[in-house]
């Protein structure tokens, strides 16, 4: 198989590595079933005790000296006077920019949702991480791999628009929002409908969780 086509997800490799390190030295039943290149990479990772030393692509496993490097930034941030993509109709400097640069905080969960959507569109990965609640399944202390996964997602799609379908305030510190994110992937429209949960923690709103309701593809 062409190594460029062989991809092992971060979660899959983490599971494999956790099983690897949990095996007792005299129990090789699992280790012996690992491909040689992955086995050697796991051995090196375990000896170095460095979580960032393990490359995640199978092609890179064939070259042990390669490291999991940071994806280089590509600016998509619009001019201050451009219309913000979040859907309010306001220009960026009067809409999501103050949130993105830390000048102010979203006052509602809906403002945060819009700010996060535009942050995805503009590749502002640090804002996405900073507004994700620690209870969210995507939250991780491995900031490098988390940021890279966000940027890979941003680069996979062209972000078009955001539709708010339902905004349910369940209490002063919890809000549920049903929305449609309208995107384009390789020239084909793809719309994600998600029901998200937002929590207010220490007077700040965070994205806590999301459940994918539907995916619409095609024109």
Explain this structure.
With 219 residues, the protein is an alpha+beta fold. The chain has two domains: 3-61, no CATH class; 92-217, Roll (Nuclear Transport Factor 2, Chain: A). It is built from seven helices and four strands. It has helices at 10-22, 36-48, 58-61, 97-100, 109-121, 125-130, 143-156, and strands spanning 158-171, 174-185, 188-201, 204-217. The longest helix is centred in the last third of the chain and has 14 residues, at 143-156.
Indicate the structural class: alpha+beta
Query: Helix count, per DSSP?
Result: 7
Question: In CATH terms, what is the fold-level topology of the largest domain?
Answer: Nuclear Transport Factor 2, Chain: A
> Helix proportion of residues, in percent?
25-40%
Quickly name the level 1 CATH class of the largest domain. Alpha Beta
The spatial strand order of the largest sheet comes to 1-2-3-4
Form type: globular
Domain YchJ-like middle NTF2-like: 108-210
InterPro entries: NTF2-like_dom_sf, SEC_C_motif, YchJ-like_M
Protein name: YchJ-like middle NTF2-like domain-containing protein
Organism: Galdieria yellowstonensis
């Amino acid at each position: 198989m062409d190594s460029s086509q062989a991809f092992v997800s971060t979660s899959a490799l983490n599971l494999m590595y956790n099983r690897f390190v949990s095996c007792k030295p005299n129990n090789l039943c699992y280790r012996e079933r690992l491909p040689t290149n992955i086995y050697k990479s796991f051995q090196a990772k375990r000896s170095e005790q460095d979580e960032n030393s393990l490359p995640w692509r199978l092609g890179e496993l064939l070259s042990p000296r390669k490291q999991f490097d940071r994806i280089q930034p590509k600016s998509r941030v619009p001019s201050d006077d451009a219309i913000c993509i979040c859907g309010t109709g306001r220009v960026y400097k009067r809409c999501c920019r103050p949130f993105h640069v830390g000048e102010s905080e979203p006052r509602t969960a809906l403002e945060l949702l819009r700010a996060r959507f535009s942050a995805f569109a503009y590749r502002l990965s640090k804002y996405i991480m900073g507004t994700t609640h620690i209870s969210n399944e995507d939250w991780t202390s491995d900031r490098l791999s988390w940021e890279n996964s966000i940027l890979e997602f941003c680069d996979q799609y062209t972000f078009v628009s955001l539709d708010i379908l339902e905004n349910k305030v369940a209490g002063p510190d919890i809000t549920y929002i049903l929305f449609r994110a309208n995107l384009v992937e390789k020239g084909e429209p793809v719309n994600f409908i998600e029901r998200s949960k937002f929590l207010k923690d220490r007077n700040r709103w965070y994205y806590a969780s999301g459940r994918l309701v539907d995916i619409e593809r095609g024109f």
